[in-house]
């Protein structure tokens, strides 16, 4: 049985590959990437597979039993790109696709949700086996603000008192490895999030505790946060998108208390304090 992983050189894809290598023989794994040379350090077979070039997908998927479809990073183009992969997988005789979706994609108000809903629908209509991993936020998304908070002396956001049940990429990768290699997960949709939710005030407090400095959280409006991000170098469109996601987080979009993720991986999810320590030592 061959397991193929799309986006295997990405931040999540690499972690999934490493987790899989502890569970199955590397010879059973295949990295599907745009540039195979960049996958040389993965220690598994790597084949060219470009979401935008369907002609590359047929050969890459030949002989694959299970496909790990890591969602494309190109927001706005995901539906078409994922359609190409799903159609190629069906033509190649792939038995099951595991897909990284979004927490509560069917009801989420996040602007990211629409393309995930489209992909979930395509998966269910394709006639293949499927497992949907509705991943919550990556804790690393907020760890990217640590350096700026230290430099500016405050953590700025528009989440208010919204609680964020994030987990590390390593946690989500561990879950993917489980469902890719164990039975009983076909036609299952899992809402995955961290065990313990936190507010940005609590993140700022943990940052203060570990640095010995006073780093407060400053709440601003969605428009002001978008302007703040743009002023610090983000493209305006991306800044507005991130601000909108934080605004939805203030209304509960990133909160979940089901603890399905920790049950799936058989251990607690990575504590916020550990992620802060890692960010400070990066």
TrEMBL record:
A Pfam family the protein falls into: NAD_binding_10
- Which Gene3D superfamilies did the record assign? NAD(P)-binding Rossmann-like Domain (3.40.50.720), UDP-galactose 4-epimerase, domain 1 (3.90.25.10)
Against InterPro entries, the record matches this protein to:
NAD(P)-bd_dom, NAD(P)-bd_dom_sf, NmrA-type_oxidoreductase
Instruction: List, alphabetically, the SUPFAM superfamilies matched.
Output: NAD(P)-binding Rossmann-fold domains
Residues of the NAD(P)-binding domain: 7-181
Name of this protein:
SDR family oxidoreductase
The source organism is: Castellaniella ginsengisoli
What is the organism lineage in this UniProt record? Answer: Bacteria, Pseudomonadati, Pseudomonadota, Betaproteobacteria, Burkholderiales
């Amino acid at each position: 049985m061959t397991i193929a992983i799309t986006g295997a050189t990405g931040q999540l894809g690499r972690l999934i590959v490493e987790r899989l290598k502890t569970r199955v023989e590397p010879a059973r794994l295949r990295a599907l990437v745009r540039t195979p040379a960049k996958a040389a350090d993965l220690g598994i077979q790597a084949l060219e597979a470009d979401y935008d070039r369907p002609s590359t997908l047929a050969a890459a998927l030949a002989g694959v039993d299970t496909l790990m479809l890591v969602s494309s990073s190109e927001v706005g183009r995901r539906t078409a790109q994922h359609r190409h992969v799903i159609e190629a997988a069906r033509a190649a005789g792939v038995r099951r696709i595991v897909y990284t979706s979004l927490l509560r994609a069917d009801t989420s108000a996040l602007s990211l949700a629409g393309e995930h809903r489209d992909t979930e629908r395509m998966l269910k209509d394709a006639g293949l086996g499927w497992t949907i991993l509705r991943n919550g936020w990556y804790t690393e998304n907020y760890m990217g603000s640590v350096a700026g908070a230290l430099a500016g002396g405050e953590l700025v956001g528009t989440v208010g008192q919204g609680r964020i049940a994030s987990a590390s990429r390593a946690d989500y990768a561990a879950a993917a490895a489980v469902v890719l290699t164990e039975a009983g997960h076909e036609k299952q949709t899992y809402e995955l999030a961290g065990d313990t939710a936190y507010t940005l005030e609590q993140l700022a407090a943990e940052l203060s505790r570990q640095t010995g400095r006073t780093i407060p959280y400053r709440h601003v409006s969605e428009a002001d946060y978008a302007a703040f991000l743009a002023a610090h170098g983000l493209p305006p469109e991306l800044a507005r998108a991130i601000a909108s996601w934080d605004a939805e987080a203030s209304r509960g979009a990133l909160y979940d208390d089901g603890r399905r993720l920790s049950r799936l991986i058989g251990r607690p999810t990575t504590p916020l304090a550990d992620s802060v320590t890692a960010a400070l030592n990066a």
